[in-house]
Write a structure and sequence with these properties.
Blueprint: H1 14-19, E1 22-26, E2 31-37, H2 50-69, E3 74-85, E4 93-104, E5 108-117, E6 122-135
Antiparallel strand pairs: 1-2, 2-4, 3-6, 4-5, 5-6
């Protein structure tokens, strides 16, 4: 796993840690990892809450996009997150996460993030995240 100072896993917020999203690989062109979906991720009706998927899309895309511009003294912030929920899940399985850029421009980036049920090989959610490249805080 590659880490840059702006995206070190030790800097993950408590909010993101609660999702259980584990990043195994990160670079400016790819972020991959997994989340073990369980009872803590479920709605009162017994399916994984869409907010879990949306949070992972935002996080995976932001980590990759920030890694891509770190050498320029920048990081990336989400402008628009469009996450589609493709299949319901009742948890009890590992979901694989893959984030890759569609466009990486001077001021903005667009990333595609897929979340796939590892055991069934079926996509659970897919999101596009548009990000703005901005200067790192001093």
């Amino acid at each position: 796993m590659t880490e840059s100072p702006s995206t070190a896993l030790t800097d993950m917020s408590a909010f993101l840690q609660v999702t259980g999203f584990v990043i195994e690989e990160q670079s400016g062109t790819r972020v991959s990892g997994y989340v073990d979906l369980g009872a803590d991720h479920l709605t009162p009706w017994g399916v994984v809450h869409g907010g879990v998927y949306t949070t992972i899309v935002e996080s995976a895309g932001s980590v990759g996009a920030s890694a891509a511009v770190h050498d320029r003294g920048q990081f990336a912030v989400g402008l628009h997150n469009s996450t589609d929920f493709l299949r319901s899940s009742t948890g009890g399985s590992r979901a694989r996460v893959l984030a890759e850029p569609i466009v990486q421009g001077r001021t903005q980036q667009l990333w595609l993030v897929t979340i796939t049920d590892e055991s069934r090989g079926k996509e659970l959610a897919r999101g596009q995240l548009r990000l703005q490249n901005i200067p790192l805080p001093s």
